[in-house]
Structure formats: structure tokens, C-alpha cells
Automatic annotation (TrEMBL):
Keyword terms: Methyltransferase, Transferase, Ubiquinone
Cited PANTHER family: PROTEIN YJDN, PROTEIN YJDN-RELATED
Annotated source species: Streptomyces chattanoogensis
SUPFAM superfamilies to which the protein is assigned, alphabetical: Glyoxalase/Bleomycin resistance protein/Dihydroxybiphenyl dioxygenase
Entry protein name: 3-demethylubiquinone-9 3-methyltransferase
Residues in Glyoxalase/fosfomycin resistance/dioxygenase domain copies: 4-130
Record InterPro entries: Glyas_Bleomycin-R_OHBP_Dase, Glyas_Fos-R_dOase_dom, PhnB-like
CDD domains in the record: PhnB_like
Biological process annotations from GO: methylation
Recorded GO MF terms: methyltransferase activity
């Protein structure tokens, strides 16, 4: 298997809902594993997600998990998940789904560099950047 780089998102108890939401947005195959599956059956963590992975038809991989007690969930502006390409219809579809119920900081519109770009934070607090490349002449 080749090396890969992909985002790994941390959640405060709602990883299942978030990962299922991303499955609705991007399609693909979602695998979720709970803490209960790995020896913590009789704890409050039993149904929480220890590891989740979404593999999409477009080749995206998105991973995520619930943050267990005792570990700090560092929410902040130190990352964004970026989607880019030249398939206008596909990327606008992702944008619509990701921004619904969230907040838009930069509307998805043509920018000074010629591409269509927008920034939003989804309803789970994850920041996204979408860039639709201008057609090459």
C-alpha cells in the first residue's frame, strides 16, 4: 500500500453522527469501530467511536474518532479540510451539504485568482475550504 496523508478529526462525543454525515456528503464506504469493540464494553465509552474511516469513490479518505475522557479536545483554527478540483458540479454539491446547518465565512464565489472558492464550518465545528479551479484554456 502506498503512503497516504489524510485528515483525522476529533469529536466531543458525536463522531458517529459526523462521520455518517460525511458519508452522506461524499458517498463511499464508512467503517466505524467503538471503544466497546476493543475491551471497554462496560464503560460510558462503549458506544463511542474509537476509530472511523470513510473511503470515497473520489479517492478521499477521512478519519475521525471521539475524544476519550482525560484527553483534551483541541478545537481551534489550526486546521481546515480542503477540497479542490475542477469538477464544478461535484464540488458545489459538497459545498451545499457541508455548509447547510453550519456557518459560511467566505461565500463560494469567484475570487481574485480566478477560481471559485469558499470557506465554511460545518455543523460539527469542522472548517472546510472548497476551491473550484477555473477551466484551463
Amino acid at each position: 500500500m502506498a503512503s497516504r496523508l489524510n485528515p483525522y478529526l476529533s469529536f466531543d462525543g458525536n463522531a458517529r453522527q459526523a462521520m455518517e454525515f460525511y458519508e452522506e456528503v461524499f458517498g463511499g464506504t464508512l467503517a466505524l469501530h467503538t471503544f466497546g469493540e476493543f475491551g471497554q464494553k462496560d464503560t460510558p465509552l462503549a458506544d463511542k467511536i474509537m476509530h472511523g474511516r470513510l473511503e470515497t469513490p473520489s479517492g478521499f479518505t477521512l478519519m475521525g474518532a471521539d475524544t476519550p475522557p482525560g484527553m483534551e479536545l483541541a478545537k481551534g483554527a489550526n486546521f481546515s479540510v480542503s477540497l479542490s478540483g475542477d469538477d464544478d458540479t461535484e464540488l458545489r454539491g459538497y459545498w451545499e451539504k457541508l455548509s447547510t446547518g453550519g456557518s459560511v465565512s467566505v461565500p463560494l464565489e469567484k475570487q481574485m485568482w480566478g477560481d471559485v472558492f469558499g470557506m465554511c464550518t460545518d455543523r460539527f465545528g469542522i472548517p472546510w475550504m472548497v476551491n473550484i479551479s477555473r477551466p484551463q484554456s
